[in-house]
Amino acid sequence: DIQDGVTPGLAIGPSTEIIAGEHRILTAGGIDAHIHFISPQQVWEALYSGVTTMIGGGTGPAEGTRATTCTPGAWNLHRMIEATQQLPMNFGFLGKGNAATTAALEEQIRAGAIG
């Protein structure tokens, strides 16, 4: 039997993973890849709109609302990761990429930057 509203030609094959949906609320999640992290309330607004992954940077409002989308240095990356551990969201933090050598970039990747 096919449920009303489901396309009869829907292909389910060897690359399809079937999961049980009982007792769950399952929704497709969006990714926002241009986040200026300036307040924790952004997470709840994103969740309400269906976003499940936030990618960006910043360390909060460094100078008014002039936020950035990169997080400078290992110390700041560690603080951002710590600050988001208990939030129901997937996060990706971007490090600051303006360096003449790879050492500073490698340090940020080791600290948890995804790019």
Explain what this protein looks like in three dimensions:
α2 (73-84) runs parallel beside α3 (102-111). The chain has helices at 41-48, 73-84, 102-111; strands at 30-36, 51-57, 90-93. It is elongated, with a radius of gyration of 19 Å. The longest helix has 12 residues, at 73-84. It has one domain. It is of the alpha/beta class and 115 residues long.
Short description:
The protein is an alpha/beta fold and 115 residues long.
What is the makeup of the main sheet? 3 strands, parallel
Q: Which percent band covers the strand fraction?
A: 15-25%
Query: Terminal Cα separation, in Å?
Result: 46 Å
Number of strands: 3
Topology:
Elements: E1 30-36, H1 41-48, E2 51-57, H2 73-84, E3 90-93, H3 102-111
Helix pairs in contact: 2-3
GO molecular function, one term: urease activity
Cofactor: Ni cation
Organism: uncultured prokaryote
